[in-house]
Structures are given as structure tokens and as C-alpha cells.
Amino acid sequence: QKDIISIRDFDRKDIEYILKLAEEMEPIARSKKKSDALSGKLLGMLFYEPSTRTRLSFEAAMKRLGGSTIGFAEAGTSSATKGENLTDTVRIVGEYSDALVIRHNMEGTARFVANIVDVPVINAGDGAGQHPTQTMLDLYTMKRILGRIDDLRIALVGDLKYGRTVHSLAYALAKFDVDVSFVSPKELKMPHEILHDLSKSGVDVYETDSIHEVLDKTDVLYVTRIQKERFPDPAEYLKIKGAYTITSKLLEGSDAIVMHPLPRIDEISHDVDNTPQGRYFEQAFYGVPVRMALLKSVIK
Ligand code: CP
Question: Which GO terms describe its molecular function (predicted)?
Fold first, then answer.
């Protein structure tokens, strides 16, 4: 692939190739081995929305491979504040760079940018749309911890309406032989068009608003934050805020591992952090080898 825009552009073989490459990258990500595979290459990073993990793990990934990064961490420090449009910005930074990573609040932005510049474009999250590199690291985490993706029972929990990580992940899981359930308050259900696409791909769609209902038949509890910034009406967010919290008590008797793309607010209690089930910090680390694999595969 030239670009990484949507997980829907990848077939199962492509995903497995990246996961295998990420495994080879892990010793380099852990500083146990050195690599100069991307020496002399420059990654342009345009973050129009806040980020900790995605931005810094891309930066770490590029540097671990001997490359460098340029860019901005928030549009407020770029000439966007003077009124420069996105097209002009990406044309300029695209000429400076060997690949571009972009995060933007508008769905479809990464695809739009890929049609403008010649260098590879990587989507680091576009509104409530897609977050394909997060999905790759989510799959890598499942495989790394549980040894497989096929035959897993996965519950996607939380804000399934606005969460781009679960939108991407649901499409990716449809390429594997898994059992997926969707757990959310009724106001934050997975969008109909995604459920429709999943059904067409052969996924048995099971929706519930009760974690208790799925807990003892789940291998992976994938929890998400309620995406406050995507609510058109802040009053609606306030009504639903704090609707669910995963605690170590809730997990008693369950073997499920708990994943979360992070950041978390209050949906996972801190008492889960040091249990064998809380795997979200490990998951966040896997962002480095997975993004190394993705960079290595697109930067020529
Ligand atoms: N998971 C994730 O996208 O985190 P950031 O918003 O910190 O990049």
C-alpha cells in the first residue's frame, strides 16, 4: 500500500504481514538492537488534534529506525492560525518529507490529503472515522498476549458511536474468525452503517448495554472513553458521562484481558492497572514496533 488511510483498504494477508514485521521490530523498539533502515528519511507530522501516544510513538518509531521527524503538535502553532488552508500546508510539508502522518477532526481528511501529495500518507485519526494504526497495534496486542486473533471473543465497550478506534477495529475483526459483541449505553451504539457492513461480512452482531451479560464469555474487554469532543451538544455528554466503570471487583471471576486505546478518564478504575488483566499500558507500548513496521513498509 502507498498510504495507510483506512483499515478497510487492508486484507487479512496485509494485516498479518504488518503484525509479523512488528514482531521483528520489537527488539529495536526496546533498544535491544539497532537499525538504520530509515536513515536520512524525514517524517512530516501534522497533528490538528491533540495526541500523546500516536504522535510520540510515531516519533519514537521513526527515530528508532534512524530517521527524523518534523511537524506540529497542534494547529495553534502552525500558519493555520493565520488562515492557511490544509491543501497549501500539506503541499508544503509533503515536499519537505518522505511521508506524512496526519490527525484531523474532520472525517475523510487523510484520504483528501493522499490525493494531493505524492508521498505516502498515514491516517493518525480522522474525526470519528478511522484510526488504522491504532487498530494494527490493537491486533498486535491480542496476538502477542493471547497468541492468536482467530477464535477470540471480543467485547467492544463504551462510546461505539463516536470512537474511531472501535470503528476501525470492528472492520478489522470482521476479517478474522472472531466473536464480537458491542456493549454501550443506547445513546452511544455502533452506527447502523458499520453494523450493516459487518453483517454483510458475516459477523454476528450482538448488542447489549450490560457488561455483566458478556463478561464471562469474553477474552478481550476493549474499553473506550466517551468522546466528549465529538458531542454536538455538551449537555448530552454530561448526561452520559461516567455511564460505566471497569473495576477489579467487576473483573473477579473473569479471565478477560482489559485493553483501552487510552487516554482514559474514569471508565477503568486505577485498581485494574496492576492486575494481570489490565494490559493497556503494554498495548500503548506496542504502538512503537507496529508503527515502525508501518513506516518501514511505506517509506521507500
Ligand atoms: N490512542 C490514541 O490515539 O491516543 P492519543 O490520542 O494520545 O494519540
Answer: amino acid binding; aspartate carbamoyltransferase activity
